[in-house]
Amino acid sequence: MIVNKPKKKKKISRYTVLNAIMILLFTTIMFKLLYIQVYKHEDYKEKADISSTRFISEKAPRGKIYDSEGNVLATNIQTYRLTYTKPSDEKENFYETMDKVFKILSENGEKFQDELILKIDSNGKFYFDFKTDDADTKKIVEVRFKRDRGLNEEIEQELYKDKQSDYTDEEIAKVDSELLKISPEETFYKLVKVYSLQELINPSPIQEEGESDKEYEARVDAYDDKMEAYKKMSGKEILDELLATYSIKDIRNYIVVKDAVKMQSFKGYRAVTIASNIKNETASIIYQKLNDLSGIDVSIEPIRYYPYSTLASGTLGYLSSIDSSKETNYELRGYDVSSDLIGVAGIESSFEDQLKGTKGGTTVKVNSKGRVTEELFKLDSYPGNNVHLTINKDVQYAAEQALKDTMERIKSIAPNATRGAVVAIEVNTGRIIAMVSYPGYDPNIFSIPGMLTEDLSKQYFDPDIESFAKEYMQRTGAKGNIDDLFPVDETTGVRRDAIDVYPKNFFNYATQGLLPPGSTFKPLTATAALMEGVVNEYESMSDTSGTWSKEELGGMILKNFEGVANGATDLRKALQVSSNFYFYELGYRLYKNSGGDVNGGNLEALDTLAKYAWKFGFGVDPKEQNNKSLSTGIQIEENFGQVYNFKSWKDKIVERPMYEIVEALKNGSYYSYSFIPLNIEENENDKDELKEAKTALKAEMKAALEKVGTDEEIYNNSIYSESLVPYVKKIMDLSEDYKAKVNETSQRRTVDINEEAGVICDAIAYYVLDNLTSEIKTPGQIISSAIGQGMNSFTPVQIANYVATLASGGTRYKVTLVDKITSPTGEVIKEYKPEVVDKLDIPENYLNAIKDGMYKVNTSASNGTAYLSFNNFPIKVGGKTGTADFSTDEQYAIQGRLAYGNYISMAPLDNPQIAIFSTIYDGKRGSEGATIHKAIYEAFFKEELLKIDPSYASKSESFRKYVLESPLKDNKDDSIKLENNVTNANNNLNTNTNNQ
């Protein structure tokens, strides 16, 4: 019997329910997407067109820089800027827009803004235009440029194809090395591919109205096929095709804009500057055509302007784009590294944080063409703070022009007098009134677009040393070999200036140039000698032969300038005639008086003169160096020279390359020691173990020298020689070159390696313990220092401050270029008041004796130009010439180098207000600088001179030329403007904007 069982109701699976829900959701989403993207496409597109928001930044004006009288030295002018922003509308043709823009700029005489460092010269040659003359910085910038454009990727793929982990420092360095091998020309070819310039002749197809889908697809297929072909072509091959239709200049212009857009894209929305500082008329033309220029806009921006052009350029500095090696640092500080300019020298650099303003900007709505449809929010920019300098523009002008004219005047006796510096400082404040570095430059060329021409850029940053070398040797009669004076750099293949004679516009000779003071140092030596009691102001020394020597100093025989004998000489006369004899004797007496002896006992005696020099700012006691800033106090970049002292001199010798012994060992002979030649000089081809052995031997020599003057000093030559044997024998064992020389020598005589090593070590011991140790301990250096030679080397700022310290009676002030900082509304934010940093109480009778001697310098007919300048000057001036040798190496005499022409002065002599130092590199005679000092005094004491003698102008050509006829007008109301930019730019821009 079959029983029908009731059917069980089948349960619905949970998975079935889930699947149904998912199908329903996806169906809803799909319908919604179709609704939005197809049915409502135009509506939503229109909404997008009018609702995209962007923030348009607005540059802030930099703070102004004023002179001491309130004249504006650096300011801002409002100019028009043409920008491009990549539109979101794919139908817009970049090349068509750029062609229209380039045409407008060309027709109106405007210059296209070109920040791409890869340029083409007038001969069609590609080159990198670096805004620096530093070789290492050039390499850093070049590598960063190529990496930012992705040129490293191909190299990395080739070198490390299967690498998965991060690259090591060594691997990165290898890639960088390969990047530097890519020539400028090859870099350009690669950029042609990077930026798909083939689109110029194979544009991406856009379906035309009325065109069928089939026809459009056929064009797309043809386009794709052509693009595939281009992928297989090199950049040069693509460029060759482009050149059939376009010029290389046009092609590069497209790359300039595309490159800027790409670099900006890393930072989100940014407008790319196409042209800056364009004329009002050009701006109006562009406004009228904006609807046809997708992505193009015109705005107002401030640019830096220096009304007095080159005046005080070394002090003011200049602006430049941010170096790629520093981009990260400045990005963290809120800079837009692609467009912001920063101070890179002088006050502009040192006070960057104060001078830079606070950026503003506007949040706007834009349509698909990048056109602003609505302004949502505006944040006003705020100017930077103002910096008020101590420089007086009129005194500065007199100093600059007088220096320039003086160098021109002495060309017949000093053919390479092309560089110089002047510093004038207030005696009782430390304030710098004028500071000149020659040659200078016009800082406007970096801030005003279009002023930095190709020729100027090459002159400043990539000079033709080859041509200069030939001209220099002909002009100066230099007889050295051109390959020695101007050797070819193995890396770059271009000549470099090994003897430092090419004028460097961006090197501040006033604050960075280190030079021997020569005889301008003698008043300091006189001060020390008087205060130590080794001479009095009336003692007379008998100089009958023009030479100075001491029996206990052996062969040391020193001469007066040109060997002239001065007869009976006291302090005043010694300063007047600049007697080396007299001051050599003072240096020797200072040493002996402090317990010094010929054998180098009591080494502290060697610092007797230095202790006074430190008081005048000539360096710092090395024992206290950690507690003292190596600075004069000046607010811009400076070097800081050191006076001769035992420790600094020892350090100098210890760190000096040991050319003498290296060359001697290489030749197999040193004094009475003869041996098989051993080469211990550095050689890249040496194996690492041999390199280490050579380095270890030299380190042992330096270690022995470090012990000189300490309780560990080595005195026994034999013991020291024995300690060197293991180091020397290791080099012998590792050097194949030495083994070959041993084999060669063994053909002539029996060779005992142990004996050879012993002789070499004896020679080294003699070199280190006798020659160099004696050189470290010799009192000859304090004697040379007494006339301002030897290791003495200071900046013009240091020397000027020394003169001011002497003039004040021993009070040394911190040097300052800045008087105060004020807000844009005039409130004083910081004031730089006179600050005493050291004091030496010089007795009045000593000071007067020194001043009398300096006065005789300017009233002695034998002192030529100094006498002609000041003998009848209404204000009493004390001076001192300083013809300082460039080097004690006679080799320099045949290289066209001459002595520095140094000159110091102070006035009025009875109560000095200002002190001055001037130098002319290769100037030959110090007295020639007196004309510069006279011009400065005439500008500074203008009113007083006319009060003393109302007819003074008729008696002084320099007063008329540099003071009365100065072309510099006062600029206290910021009235000196660039032509074409003095109109009401804001009003014009607002009018044009409202008309759109």
Automatic annotation (TrEMBL):
It is a single-pass membrane protein. InterPro entries: Beta-lactam/transpept, Beta-lactam/transpept-like, PBP_dimer, PBP_dimer_sf, PCN-bd_Tpept. Residues 680-707 form a coiled coil. Its main location: membrane. Pfam families: PBP_dimer, Transpeptidase. Keywords: Cell membrane, Cell shape, Cell wall biogenesis/degradation, Coiled coil, Membrane, Peptidoglycan synthesis, Transmembrane, Transmembrane helix. It is found in: Cell membrane; Membrane. One of its GO terms (cellular component) is plasma membrane. GO terms for molecular function: penicillin binding; peptidoglycan L,D-transpeptidase activity. GO terms for biological process: cell wall organization; peptidoglycan biosynthetic process; regulation of cell shape. Residues 420-697, 784-939 form the Penicillin-binding protein transpeptidase domain. Residues 58-375 form the Penicillin-binding protein dimerisation domain. It comes from the Bacteria. The chain crosses the membrane at residues 12-35. Belongs to the transpeptidase family. PANTHER family: PEPTIDOGLYCAN D,D-TRANSPEPTIDASE, PEPTIDOGLYCAN D,D-TRANSPEPTIDASE MRDA. This is Penicillin-binding Protein dimerization domain family protein. It comes from Clostridium sartagoforme AAU1. The lineage of its organism: Bacteria, Bacillati, Bacillota, Clostridia, Eubacteriales.
